[in-house]
Amino acid sequence: MKTLITGTVMLSVIVIMLLISWIDLPSDPNAMNIANRFAPPSGEHWLGTDQYGRDILSRLLLASQSALTVSLGGVGSGMLIGCILGAVAGYMKGLIGSVIMRAMDVLFAFPNLLLALMLVTVLGTGQVNVLLAIAVFSVPSFARLMYGFVLEAQSYGYIKAARSYNAGHAVILFRHLIPAALPRIGVQMSLALGSGILTETALSFLGLGVQPPHPSWGGMLNEAQSFMYLAPAYPLIPGFVIFLAVAGFNLLGDGIAARHKEAVS
Predict the structure, then answer these.
(1) For 78-89, what is each residue's pLDDT tens digit?
(2) TM spans, by residue (predicted)?
């Protein structure tokens, strides 16, 4: 329970940041004022300014849009494709199931960031291509999850009853099997979102993700590393927000898994 609450509180901060970025930013995130570079926190600039005199808080808030949009879009797409492929593989078995799961094994063999780097290198930089990369490496984990669940669930009474009433394959898959797996999918979704945000920030840090002038947490961290001695607090700010988002999703996933286990037992 504590894990679930902690994760929820951490993510609440990120959600509030996102809402503020949609409603009204404190100032123009791209407005430069070299004379005011590395200004300390003040009433006008709550978190100070960066090397170009831009408001750090405004840039941090605006960057939450790309981080959450790209990770949610990528993981959501990967979840949809992966669940369908895994369900079909587990239900049909045979050659179809083997081909699908061997393809998933090939994708699963690559570390997430390495696979994302390869795809972005081929497709090009930008938010859309990062989203596609996150979607691709998210597919295998959801496919494996759904594949295992479908194999297990085919022995359940309600699945046997549906078959005895000559229910179609699509009905059994989409009306019975996939909805029954939603608690497990929710846990995996939360964990995958943490990985998605980490990948988006890493690619932006390397200059392959969100492109200027739109700010990104990874891009801010990249810019800040050159000024660690001049402004030690500067790199800590985007780093702390990244930690909040990634740890928040991981703790939320662990909390949901624990609650589901308690409910089942």
Answers:
(1) 999 999 999 899
(2) 5-23, 67-91, 103-124, 130-150, 185-207, 227-252
Burial classification of residue 7, based on how many CB atoms lie within 10 Å of its CB (0-12 exposed, 13-18 middle, 19 or more buried)? buried
Could you tell me which of 160, 199, 193, 192 has the C-alpha nearest to residue 176? 160
Just give the CATH number of 2-12+54-264.
1.10.3720.10
Evaluate if pTM is beyond 0.85.
yes
Listed residue (122, 115, 156) closest to 138, CA to CA: 115
Q: Where are the domains of the chain?
A: 2-12+54-264
pLDDT (tens digit per residue) in 138-186: 999 999 999 998 888 777 666 667 666 666 677 777 777 778 888 889 8
